[in-house]
Fold:
Amino acid sequence: MRALGFAGPYSGTRHQFTTLGAARLAIPSSEEIGVAKVRELIREVELLVGRTIEVDEWNRLP
Structure:
């Protein structure tokens, strides 16, 4: 996420989170991760960075 400009992760009250400018994105715990949640997170990240992130770019992220 840092490669995309996000800062963090930071500790929150229930979940860790990352930020991009004034936007805050919660990082769900491992028990909450499923395909639907991953798709939702990808869509949120794409909205925040203002562009589509292709699969090969996601795979190259550190």
About this structure: Strands lie at 7-10, 16-20, 23-27.
